[in-house]
Specification:
The complex is a heterotrimer of chains A (154), B (698) and C (121).
Chain A lengths: L10 E9 L2 E6 L3 E6 L13 E7 L2 E7 H4 L12 E7 L2 E7 L1 E9 L18 E7 L2 E6 L1 H5 L3 H4 L1
Parallel strand pairs in A: 2-10, 5-7
Antiparallel strand pairs in A: 1-2, 1-8, 3-6, 4-5, 6-7, 9-10
Chain B lengths: L5 H28 L5 H20 L3 H18 L7 H22 L6 H14 L39 E8 L10 H11 L1 E7 L17 E7 L4 H6 L8 E7 L2 H4 L47 H27 L7 H23 L1 E3 L1 H18 L3 E6 L4 E3 H22 L3 H6 L6 E10 L2 E8 L6 H10 L11 H6 L22 H10 L3 E7 L3 E9 L4 E9 L2 E6 L3 E6 L5 E5 L2 E6 L2 E7 H4 L13 E6 L5 E6 L1 E9 L13 E6 L5 E5 L1 H7 L14
Parallel strand pairs in B: 6-8, 13-22, 17-19
Antiparallel strand pairs in B: 1-3, 1-4, 2-3, 5-7, 8-9, 9-11, 10-11, 12-13, 12-20, 14-18, 15-16, 16-17, 18-19, 21-22
Helix pairs in contact in B: 1-2, 1-4, 2-3, 3-4, 3-5, 4-5, 9-10, 11-12, 12-16
Chain C lengths: L3 E5 L3 H11 L5 E5 L2 H11 L3 E5 L7 H10 L8 E5 L4 H9 L4 E4 L4 H12 L1
Parallel strand pairs in C: 1-2, 1-3, 3-4, 4-5
Helix pairs in contact in C: 2-3
The chains are: A mainly beta (154), B alpha+beta (698), C alpha/beta (121).
Chain lengths: 154, 698, 121
């Protein structure tokens, strides 16, 4: 995919979305599409945060419950839930979120590293933080989100 | 997008051609090995090396040219019967061909050429024809001109503007009669001279006799050309290269004094040439290559297609099938009768699409021959490494298999063949002691059978030493110490991970790749592998593969709320469990009686985690599954829906590969259904211990 | 009107390269895979000049040249032979067989075109 034309090379565009009452975001470059929830076919013996697979125009797309992946308390799902289809190293994954908010453009200097998170539940998966219109938005590290280590898969 | 570079395309195509030529060489050498001594076979091998050399020269592949050239010389000696063929020479030719293959591959991949090996083989080749080894690098006889990329050949650039300072030449040119016999003609030569510069040409007709004494086939004319050109005498002389000895010509530089003298009869045109019809008899035939004992088959017309395009076509046809299934569903939901015109039309439509699908699936099919030829090389190298004499006999080389399957088979087959040579076959001494011929045989075969491809790798060695296998398995804790196993169960122990019978790990097969890896590879292609062995006679591995990787005949079932697909060729039959046939061996282990045996039940819904175990299996539907080793299992499902041809969609294993889930498909309603591997599910389930017998006697 | 060339060689790579060298220079190129195929294409295309390899299956270069010369339409059609060596014996043998000229493989496109011009104008 060709690079988006940015006037300054340090501009980054983020897709923001909600999980519960928290706001998260992903670099728009890795987002392929956004679609509504459809029933997924569960995969036996998959990690708990995997909802299953859905039919994405003829390909089999694994869908991950992002809230559960991040260790947030589980909540009921309803049809309003949205699947963000992301691509990492030629593999596509669907991330189930509550709702998509907006696309915002920031410069690198607006992103701050997270405080030392080793004492918190989910280290490193949050790449940086930013403040936008007085709201704290967490920027996710996509490779870490979609790469499941052996231990986690058990 | 930059336009494709034609030279790069030709180069890529050259390497493909090399592979074809190398295959033809293997065939030829194989025939010679089997005793064929007709002239044509050696010509085929010679021409193949010759063509590889020719192409390699054009691309500047020096190492390849050097080796091919010497190899060609030795083959030429055989071709002209100066050198006789014996087993040692053939062996050398086989090794030289293998090396040529390596050189071609290295050249193709821009890797370093294995020149050290080249040198030693070259010495052997040279010794055969008695030639003293040439000093390395000295190849005076090859006129080597790599093709440059400048293909803009505007030849008119040769004509320089006429300047009074350009040198002038007087050229007198008189063709002999013989000159015209080979299609040479004065006109083009004069034209070529004109290409060098300004020409004034006169034709000297003084030797023409009167018409009545004119012999039409005799040359009487000559020409004088005054050429003004920035060329030297050598370059002008090169225009006469083809007619040296067939004419007389002189090139005389014009001095200042002569330049002022005008030529007589200056005309601007080149005199027309009197057409002479030579009636020369055909030159003596030198067609040693013409008399073939059997005319080789005319080459098939083939088209080379980008594999990406085929992939796309396969996918599109798959989509078509899925779409039709969805349409059928919608029509059914809309309440249309199955006998209505629309439904009939759709059925016909689906039939046609299946035909297209069959044809498309076979586009990618290739004969397994190239794979088998690679295996014969493996046998050659392996037998040398372990010091045994082994021959590979192959059958069914023309059997066609999907190209992607062929590529994935190379590693497992290599391993099995190395195993056969290393472990399967006994040492020459043991073989003789057992009354067998000293040389061992490895047999490789492929055939189509009931919609699948069956491949067998067998050896005529000592067979599986079952006592030893059992002991090793017990020692490694793979089976309980007191287990009693049937012969076939013991044979199947070889497929367990961590199993190796090699007392000493030889260089060859002891690389940590066990038969379990081989089996997993075969299974990932949708295939199955089984083993049979007779003490003292040998061992046979049978591999069964689907014809293509993309479609499957499946049985669609419902388990809990999920729709699943079971490959039809694993389903022996379907049955309904009744109170009479149901029984329980011990709590938690249920069986169903099928004719004379008891078959263990497997609660699919429970084991896949969809629902808790059923309280009662009475009136449940079950699929009777046949495992690779012939034993049976019964999968309990909630509902059997129908049988369908389904398109297989791969599952990537980013999030772990669920045991027993082979792939997925998309149903008519757009939902994804998982495709099961029933054997795998049962084998990996916690309820059944690995290696425990699955078939119980009453 | 461009000159028609018939190039006969059993190596696909060689046929491709001849085509690549000659078509930009304005020649119309026809190809054949061996001597037998060459005689078929010969009758269909009536070329002005022929290029042929020597080592080919079914009918080799010398046999093909014979066949060409036996065709009354092509008694004096120029024939260039592709050889891998510039040795004089080969040139004499080619000439004795009825060839008009020769090209040494691997060939320089410019030399190929020049050779064609020397025999066919």
């Amino acid at each position: 995919m060709s690079q988006d034309i940015s006037a300054k090379s340090d501009t980054v565009k983020l897709l923001t979305f909600r999980l519960g009452d928290q706001e998260y975001s992903l670099d728009i470059m890795c987002v392929r599409e956004i679609r509504g929830w459809t029933k997924a076919t569960p995969m036996p013996c998959a990690p708990n945060f995997m909802r299953g697979v859905i039919n994405l125009r003829g390909t089999v797309l694994p869908v991950m419950d992002l809230a559960e992946r991040l260790g947030l308390p589980p909540r009921a799902h309803c049809d309003r839930n949205v699947i963000i289809v992301v691509s990492h190293q030629d593999r596509m994954t669907g991330l189930l979120v509550d709702a998509v908010s907006d696309i915002i453009a920031l410069s690198d200097s607006d992103l701050q590293p997270p405080p030392d998170a080793s004492s918190h539940g989910v280290p490193a998966i949050i790449k940086s933080l930013t403040l936008f219109e007085d709201r704290m938005i967490r920027v996710l590290d996509l490779p870490i989100v979609v790469t499941v280590t052996q231990g986690e898969a058990a | 997008m930059t336009p494709p570079d034609p030279m790069a395309e030709i180069r890529a195509s050259f390497f493909v051609e090399c592979e074809e030529l190398l295959e033809a060489m293997q065939d030829g050498l194989q025939l010679m090995d089997e005793g064929a001594h007709d002239g044509e076979t050696i010509h085929v091998v010679f021409r193949a090396v010759h063509s590889i050399k020719g192409g390699a020269g054009a691309f500047g592949l020096n190492g390849l040219v050097r080796f091919a050239h010497k190899y060609e010389n030795t083959l030429d000696a055989v071709r002209s019967e100066a050198l006789a063929v014996d087993a040692d020479l053939l062996n050398l030719f086989f090794r030289a061909t293998d090396h040529l293959f390596d050189l071609v591959r290295a050249a193709r991949d821009n890797a370093d050429l294995p020149t050290a090996q080249s040198d030693s083989l070259l010495r052997e080749l040279e010794i055969c024809i008695g030639a003293p080894p040439a000093p390395d690098g000295a190849e005076p006889e090859i006129e080597f001109q790599p093709i440059g990329l400048a293909l803009d050949l505007g030849c008119d650039t040769d004509a320089p503007p006429v300047l009074t300072q350009s040198p002038q030449y007087d050229i007198v040119f008189a063709p002999d009669t013989e000159m015209f016999e080979n299609g040479n003609d004065a006109y083009p030569i004069l034209g070529a001279l004109a290409g060098l510069g300004e020409c004034s040409v006169t034709c000297d007709t003084s030797r023409l006799p009167g018409l009545d004494s004119l012999a039409p086939e005799t040359s009487y004319l000559s020409w004088t050309v005054r050429l003004t050109a920035d060329a030297d005498a050598a370059e002008i002389a090169s225009m006469f290269e083809f007619v040296e000895g067939l004419c007389t010509y002189t090139i005389t530089p014009v001095t200042e004094a002569d330049a002022s003298e005008p030529l007589r009869n200056v005309t601007g045109d080149i005199a027309p040439v009197v057409p002479l019809l030579p009636d020369t008899p055909s030159p003596p035939a030198a067609n040693s290559g013409c008399e073939a004992t059997a005319p080789p088959a005319a080459p098939k017309t083939v088209v080379r297609v980008d594999l990406d395009r085929i992939e796309r076509l396969v996918n599109l046809v798959g989509e078509l099938v899925i779409n039709q299934a969805m349409m059928a569903q919608s029509l059914q939901n809309a309440g249309l009768s199955p006998h209505s015109d629309a439904m009939n039309g759709l059925e016909e439509f689906q039939r046609l699409t299946r035909d297209i699908q069959d044809s498309v699936m076979m586009i990618r099919a290739q004969p397994v021959k190239s794979l088998f030829q690679r295996m014969s090389r493996i046998v050659r190298e392996a037998s040398v490494a372990v010091g045994k004499e082994v021959r590979l006999i192959s059958e069914g080389e023309s059997t066609e298999v999907d190209k992607t399957v062929i590529e994935s088979l190379a590693d497992p087959l290599t391993h099995m063949i190395r195993n056969a040579v290393d472990h399967g076959l006994e040492t020459p001494a043991d073989r003789l002691a057992a009354g067998k011929p000293e040389g061992g045989i490895v047999r490789l075969s492929a055939a189509h059978r009931s919609g699948r491809v069956i491949m067998e790798v067998s050896d005529d060695g000592g067979g599986i030493d079952r006592a030893r296998v059992q002991k090793i398995a017990k020692d490694k804790g793979l089976i309980p110490a007191d287990a009693v196993l049937s012969d076939s169960e013991i044979d199947n122990l070889l497929f367990l991970p961590g199993f190796s019978t090699a007392a000493t790990v030889s260089d060859l097969s002891g690389r940590g790749v066990g038969m379990d890896v081989v089996r997993t590879s075969i299974q990932s292609l949708g295939g199955r592998i089984s083993i049979a062995s007779t003490q003292g006679q040998g061992t046979t591995f049978s591999i069964s593969l689907p014809l293509t990787l993309a479609v499957l005949d499946g049985m669609v079932v419902k388990v809990a709320d999920e729709t699943l697909v079971v490959p039809l060729n694993m389903v022996a039959e379907t049955l309904t469990i009744s109170g009479d046939t149901l029984d329980s061996i011990q709590p938690g282990v249920d069986v169903v009686r099928v004719r004379s045996g008891f078959v263990p039940l497997f609660d699919l819904g429970h084991h896949l985690g969809y629902r808790p175990k059923l309280d009662s299996y009475i009136d449940s539907a079950a699929l009777l599954i046949t495992h690779d080793d012939g034993t049976l299992g019964a999968l309990v499902v909630d509902e059997i829906q129908d049988q369908r041809q389904i398109v297989i969609k791969g599952l990537d294993d980013t999030f772990g590969r669920a045991p027993g889930i082979a792939a997925a498909t998309i149903l008519g309603d757009g939902q994804i259904a998982l495709i099961l591997d029933p054997s795998d599910i049962i084998a990996k389930s916690a309820d059944f211990k690995a290696g425990a017998p699955l078939k119980l006697e009453a | 009107m461009s000159l028609h060339v018939l190039a006969v060689d059993d190596s696909r790579t060689m046929r491709d390269m001849i085509r690549l060298a000659l078509e930009p220079a304005g020649f119309t190129v026809h190809t054949a895979d061996d001597g037998v195929h060459g005689t078929e294409v010969l009758s269909q295309t009536a070329p002005d000049v022929i290029i042929t390899d020597i080592n080919m299956p079914r009918l080799d270069g010398f046999g093909f040249i014979d066949a060409v010369r036996e065709n009354s339409d092509h008694l004096s059609t120029p024939i260039l032979v592709l050889t891998t060596e510039a040795a004089p014996e080969l040139k004499m043998r080619a000439r004795a067989a009825g060839a008009t000229g020769w090209i040494v493989k691997p060939f320089d496109p410019a030399k190929l075109v020049k050779a064609l011009q020397m025999v066919a104008g």
